[in-house]
Amino acid sequence: MKHDDVTIVLQGPLHTKGGSLCRGIHNIPTYMKFVGASIISTWKNDGIKPTKRFLASNNTTYIEDDPEKYSKVFNWMNVNFQVASSLNGMRKVKTKYVIKVRCDEKYEDMSVFIKTMKENPEMLTTQEPFYRDVTEKKYISDHVMGGLTTKMTDMFEEAYEICEKFDVPKKDYAPENILKKSFDGDNVWVSIFDFGDFLFKMNTERITRAAIKKMKGNFKWQKS
């Protein structure tokens, strides 16, 4: 089902280390089966870019920013770049709801995520942090995040202000902790297995549905 009141923001670097467009960019036609519009929020670069024809045919807006503007902002685990590129994208959203994903990841099925998000409009919907041994719902993943555009924008604005002022307690260094602290409300999870086929990035490691099944002894294993 297509939801015209939802926009998906793809944030982060546009290219792989080899110089090709990230898989998330190639996955935009799949995302567009579920949402009304998409936005690519990335960094100025000299590499290949999505064509105007591709952008137009997929109702996609493309924006760039200069990463040097954020070089003096708190940058543990690149939180400065993640928050800035996400916030740039949020400010272009015109729909009621928004989902933030990463350019270097892809997800085949967004239906369960959107359903959960709309059933819990005042909450922050995220992918379950399966890669950590967590049982408390207060934890989130910052890979796929969604909710009301107003609340999502407020979250990234607050997170950016925290980073800009270096007002980050030591225990909150991780990007997801800063973002959770910045959201006004509770959160709800969607299982990683509700996304169908996917490519998830953790540091330099590529994680797929099949890989998680092989590594289930090392990861939180929960099938919805």
SSE succession: EHHEHEHEEHEEHHEEEH
Name the assembly state. single chain
Q: For the largest sheet, list the strands in their spatial order.
A: 3-2-1-4-7-6-8
Our measurement of the CA-to-CA distance between the termini, rounded to an integer number of angstroms, reads 20 Å
Q: Give Rg in angstroms.
A: 16 Å
Can you give the mean pLDDT? 91
Q: What shape does the CA trace take?
A: globular
Describe the sheet with the most strands.
7 strands, mixed
Helix/strand-derived category reads alpha/beta
Helix content: 25-40%
Number of helices: 8
Low-confidence stretches: 220-224
Q: Percent of residues in beta strands? A: 15-25%
Query: Tally of extended strands?
Result: 10
Characterize the structure shown.
With 224 residues, the protein is an alpha/beta fold. Helix content is 29%, strand content 24%. It is built from eight helices and ten strands. The protein has helices at residues 23-26, 28-31, 52-57, 79-90, 111-119, 149-164, 175-182, 209-214; strands spanning 3-11, 35-43, 60-65, 97-102, 106-107, 124-127, 145-148, 187-190, 198-202, 205-208. The strands form two sheets. A seven-stranded mixed sheet has the order 3-2-1-4-7-6-8. The longest helix is centred in the last third of the chain and has 16 residues, at 149-164. Residues 220-224 have low confidence and may be disordered.
In short:
This protein has 224 residues and is of the alpha/beta class. The chain contains eight helices and ten strands.
Question: What are the salient characteristics of this protein?
Answer:
single chain, 224 residues, alpha/beta, 7-stranded mixed β-sheet, 3-stranded antiparallel β-sheet, 10 strands, 24% strand, globular
